[in-house]
Design brief:
One of its GO terms (molecular function) is glucosaminyl-phosphatidylinositol O-acyltransferase activity. The chain is mainly alpha-helical and about 325 residues long. The chain is built from 14 helices and no strands. The chain is about 70% helix and about 0% strand. It is globular. About 35% of the residues are buried.
């Protein structure tokens, strides 16, 4: 989340290396990981993964209302101030908050035990990938748009199936790796989890290489099968590396990490607001490297200070 918050403003300046920016069609960059990682990490520690309660549609609609409001809020504000939005990312009106809400609602509609979520997720991804190979990918990557709402937001709407499949697989992985069959949500032993994290990391990286080469290249824009396995492999690898911190003396997390952990979505919202303000006030493309670095440093310090103050006073902005 910290890397995402820093990158969404930094990418608007010339000093940001373009190889780290989001890809237009196929391929992967650092910023392509943000959206998928947010879905993945939510799934790993979700209520479904912990198997502590069933989620019905009514409860899902109630908890996703804030996300839907945030989605419409972002749409209204960006349209109202004529803020530049990359249409090829989600479409003309869609944004990531709508995707989060849709995944939550679809998951609640299925409402199956976590040990079976992976099979459903794989089935959805295979069916979606088959449709992509039958010509849906050409439609999603084309710049042509009709007048209907689906055509205008085709990337955001169709990519839901990819993110939903990813979320379901993440639920089963979280259940398997951390919570097991224990209904109370008690964590598994660290040694058991560590060994399986490394095995799964290697497995998903192998799958990513094979699918990317022989099926279809990874595409965040479509959230296809290769992109899903890429996100799973990358996140599992990061978790596997972090699991080695047990062998290092001292604190395993920083104060800044703890502050962001308490208000993940709140920090992300603040970062989006500050990014919008900077872009409205500064012509980021034409500023010097020194000015860009100064603005980014001030932006980073503001994010850290606000998150730290909220954490110090125990304030948590909970949206679901």
């Amino acid at each position: 989340m910290i890397i995402t918050c820093l990158s969404i403003l930094a990418v608007d300046f010339r000093i940001f290396p373009r190889r780290y920016a989001k890809t237009e069609t196929y391929g992967t960059g650092l910023m392509d990981l943000g959206v998928g990682s947010f879905i993945m990490t939510n799934a790993l520690v979700s209520r479904q993964a912990r198997n502590i309660s069933s989620v019905n549609l009514k409860a899902a609609l109630r908890t996703t209302n804030p996300l839907i409001l945030l989605g419409f809020g972002r749409l209204i504000t960006t349209s109202g101030v004529d803020y530049q939005v990359h249409v090829g990312e989600y479409g003309m009106h869609w944004n990531f908050f709508f995707t989060l809400a849709a995944v939550s609602i679809l998951t609640s509609l299925t409402n199956i035990p976590p040990q079976y979520c992976g099979a459903l997720g794989i089935s959805i991804l295979i069916a979606y990938q088959s449709c992509l190979l039958q010509g849906l990918n050409v439609y999603l990557l084309s710049s042509e748009r009709g007048t209907d709402i689906i055509s205008q937001n085709k990337e955001g709407i169709f990519s839901i199936f990819g993110y939903w499949g990813m979320y379901l697989i993440g639920v089963q992985l979280g259940h398997y790796l951390f919570f097991g069959s224990n209904s109370s949500g008690t964590l598994r032993s660290k040694q058991w989890t560590r060994s399986r994290l490394w095995i799964l990391t290697l497995l998903f990286w192998l799958l990513t290489v094979v699918i990317d080469k022989h099926v279809e290249r990874a595409s965040r824009r479509m959230c296809n099968l290769a992109y899903v396995t890429f996100v799973l492999a990358q996140n599992l690898q990061v978790l596997a590396i972090f699991s080695l911190s047990d062998f290092v003396a001292g604190s395993q997390s920083s104060a800044l990490q703890d502050a962001f952990n308490r208000n993940l979505l709140g920090s992300f919202l603040l970062a989006n607001i500050l990014t919008g303000v900077v872009n409205l006030l500064v012509d980021t493309i034409f500023v010097s490297s020194l000015t860009a670095l100064s603005i980014l440093s001030l932006y980073a310090y503001t994010l850290a200070i606000v998150s730290g103050i909220l954490d110090f006073y125990g304030i948590r902005l909970k949206f679901w």
